[in-house]
Design goal:
This protein is of the alpha/beta class. It has 11 helices and 11 strands. The two termini are about 20 Å apart.
């Protein structure tokens, strides 16, 4: 089982080398992380975007582009389509978002001609290596599905469980996070959490243990759960935090990054290949870890 993001990086280095296609690659931190992944023998890389801008950034930042292929396409939407086509054509294994909006990239991914769509919901999974937590913490979905209904939450759980299992977590513990740890008819998130827990116990959602509703403190702290009299396999041992909406996921994720000094990796799951996607403000290391995660998920 992979216990931290450095172990994830090492696992990717020891695995089969993949090819990554970068959509609109003219971004200094994206270039730096991709080239480092190439140097680590994790990937071969194809950079799609404005070649003049890519080379200008590389020269300014001292980035060596000799080991990568560049496809010159200054138009952002065309570059996204090209990057996706490389995966469709079997020339690349997975995608990475560069200097392009998420919606524009996903439009290219979801184009029927791209043949990357599946019947699965697309959702975003972030993994946090939090200094004060005893294992990796998965957070979903703070970047893709704005206001998931119950059926969406089932898909989000299934996607995140598949990611956790790829990292060696055999039976991930899932905590549907709410403001309170009891079912409140006025709070839909608590009703959904209870329903998801029941579906899990009855075998309708497999491969994990779900217990909720749980407040955040109960999910990650055995002491807090004990103080409130909560008896649960998940309390204090959560692997996956399922948030009720995109705002709460966004706030929690950025709090982990900026207040708790957590390192992170992020991907979109549900298409035929993983899509490396983290915030434009995220660090070089976060992007490198995300590339490593995408490689493992391929």
């Amino acid at each position: 089982m992979i216990k931290n993001l450095e172990e994830l990086l090492e696992a990717a280095r020891n695995g089969k080398k993949k090819t990554i296609s970068v959509a609109v690659a003219q971004d200094s931190v994206v270039l730096e992380s991709v080239i480092k992944a190439v140097e680590f023998d994790i990937v071969e890389a194809i950079l799609v975007g404005d070649e003049k801008a890519i080379r200008s950034i590389a020269e300014k930042e001292g980035i060596n582009l000799s080991e990568v292929r560049i496809i010159n396409e200054p138009d952002i939407n065309n570059a996204a389509a090209w990057a996706v086509h490389l995966v469709t054509a079997g020339q690349a294994d997975y995608l990475m978002k560069g200097l392009i909006g998420t919606a524009s990239l996903l439009k290219a991914v979801l184009n029927k001609e791209a043949e990357l769509r599946t019947n699965n919901l697309l959702s975003h999974v972030m993994i946090y290596d939090v200094p004060t937590y005893h294992k990796l913490l998965f957070l979903t979905d703070g970047g893709m599905v704005p206001y998931p209904e119950l059926k969406d939450k089932i898909g989000i759980i299934n996607n995140s469980v598949s990611v956790a299992k790829s990292l060696g977590i055999d039976t991930p513990k899932v905590a549907p996070i709410c403001a309170v740890e009891v079912v409140n008819p006025s709070m839909q998130a608590t009703i959904d959490a209870s329903t998801l827990s029941t579906m899990n116990r009855r075998g309708q959602i497999k491969g994990c243990i779900i217990d909720g509703p749980l407040a955040l403190d109960n999910a990650i702290s055995k002491e807090a759960a004990k103080h409130k009299g909560i008896v649960s396999e998940v309390a204090g041992e959560a692997d996956i935090l399922l948030v009720p909406n995109i705002e709460s996921g966004n706030f929690l994720g950025k709090s982990l990054t900026y207040f708790a000094k957590a390192e992170s990796a992020g991907v979109i799951i549900g298409a035929k290949c993983p899509i490396v996607l983290v915030s434009r403000a995220d660090s070089f290391k976060s992007k490198l870890y995300s590339i490593a995660l995408g490689s493992i998920l391929c």
